[in-house]
Amino acid sequence: MKRKIIVGNWKMNPTTLEEASHIFKKVKNMAQKLNYTHVIICPPFPYISKFVSSKAKISVGIGAQDAFSEESGSFTGEVSPAMLRDLGVSHVIVGHSERRSAGESDEVVAKKVQSVLEAGIHPIVCVGEKERDSHGLYLDALKVQIKNSLAKVPKKLASQVIIAYEPVWAIDAKEPMEPSVIEEMTIFIRKVLADIFGQENALKTTVLYGGSINFRNAPDIITRGKVDGLLVGRESVNIPGFIELLKAVDVV
Questions:
Q1: Alpha-carbon distance 208 to 128, whole Å?
Q2: Distance between first and last Cα of the chain
Q3: Which of 105, 121, 141, 236 is most buried, judged by most C-beta within 10 A?
């Protein structure tokens, strides 16, 4: 059975280190019991060093929610991939829809992806259409977004990239996208990746789905949606729900 990847994006939650440590301990204990699932937690920057200190002893990967494109310099408030690598971070979310909505362009995302790869870290590149139309124009927009966001990725490093398909319109919706439609979009994304990197590399690239995920719908999304894992937002800081999600996903 192929190992699934579940990424927990805590966003700007929780507000105290004590609560963050409590959540992380519960997730860590559950992750150690999983046989077919790899868990990656992306906490806010202030908590990263607390969690990676014991990385060698646990089965949870530590990721960051963003990184800047430069290694060092006069960039107040930014954090470089080199700094994250030094901490022991293994993954970085790049181009999340919340950052794109704040003005981050495909070109900025491409530079960040390049910088993250050069630091030896896996970028989790978020892509997704803002809305759907009956004429299929959203597919063209998604294709352009993917190609532009990966424009600086050399073919030899294509397998190091993780794609997180997160349609903006499906975020915080009552129900996620139908698994059959997710499968169609997964196929489409792999076709775009094949255009960029070739068929072999496209098949090796990990594709995740994100958007209104919980323990009830997660197994169906993976099995019928044909994705390699999930990018989980608010549910990843809900201890009971996230633990049940991990249990449910591990057996499918």
A1: 12
A2: 9
A3: 236
For 81-117, letters b (16+ CB in 10 Å) and e give: bbbbbebbbbbbbbbbbbbbeeebebebbbbbbbbbb
CB of 81 closer than 8 Å to CB of 61: no
How far apart, in whole angstroms, are the C-alpha atoms of residue 143 and residue 61? 30
Structure tokens at 92: 């970085």
Catalytic residue among 96, 122, 129, 235: 96
Q: Any idea where the domains of the chain sit in the sequence?
A: 4-250
Contacts 24+ apart (CB under 8 A), 152-156: 152/110, 152/111, 152/113, 152/114, 153/113, 153/114, 153/117, 153/196, 153/197, 155/197, 155/198, 155/201
Per-residue model confidence as pLDDT tens digits over 81-140: 999 999 999 999 999 999 999 999 999 999 999 999 999 999 999 999 988 887 889 999
Q: Which of 91, 122, 129, 166 is catalytic?
A: 166
**Known catalytic membership, residue 166:** yes
The backbone torsions φ and ψ at residue 80, rounded to the nearest 5 degrees and listed phi first, read: -90, 155
- When computed from its CA atoms, the radius of gyration of the chain, rounded to whole angstroms, is 17
50 CB neighbour count, 10 Å cutoff: 14
Question: Is 135 noted as a catalytic residue in this protein?
Answer: no
Q: Please give the model's pTM, rounded to 2 decimal places.
A: 0.96
- Name the 3-class secondary structure at 54: coil
Class of 4-250 in CATH = alpha beta
H or E segment and range at residue 132: none
